[in-house]
Amino acid sequence: MNRVQSEKTDEEIVLLVQRGDTEQFGELVERYEEKLLRYGRKFLSRREDIQDIVQDIFISTYQNIQNFDTLQRFSPWIYRIAHNAFVNRLKKNSYNPLILVDFDTLVSHPVYEDPAPLEREQKEMRVMIDRGLEELAPKYREILILHYLEDMSYKEISDILQIPGGTVGIRLKRAKEALKKVYETMNLHHE
Fold first, then answer.
1. What is the average per-residue pLDDT within 85-102?
2. Disulfide engineering: 24 pairs with which of 11, 16, 161, 174, CB 3.0-4.6 Å?
3. Quick one: which of 66, 31, 35, 65 has its CA closest to 50?
C-alpha cells in the first residue's frame, strides 16, 4: 500500500487493463479497497465477512472489466457491484425472508439536487452519520453513505441503486430525518 498512486484517472487505468496490462488492476484495488471496506461496514458487522466480500467484488470487477464503458465514471460502476454483493449477503444473513415494499420507489418524485449544498450541513451530516448509522434501515444507511461520505451525485446514486433520481431525493430526505431523530434520541440519553 506504500506505492505512489499514478496520476491516471480510474477510467484510464481500466482502459489499460482492458488492453491487456493486467498489473494496472492493482492500482484500482489500492484506490478502492479502503472505500469498499468502509462501505461494507455500513451493511455488515463482521470484519472477516466484509473483507471476503470486498475480495469477491474485486474478482467480479476484474472478470467484468471488459464490459465497462471507459467513457463513463468507474466509481459508480464498482459501487454498483459492491452494492449488489453486500445486499446479497444481507439477504442471505437475514432471518426474515419477507421483502418489504419500498414505498419510495412507488411514487414518482421530481428530481431536485441543490447545486450548492451548504458546507455546514455536509459537516453536521457527516458527524451524525458516523454516530447514528447503525440505527437506520439499510436503505437509508446506504444512501447517506453514498451521498455524504462518498460524495456521489443523485445521478450516480440512482445508477448504483437502480432507482429513479426522484426516489434518491426523497429517500435522502427521509434518511436525514430518521438520522436526526436517532441523533436527538442519542443526545437525550447522554444528558
1. 61
2. 16
3. 35
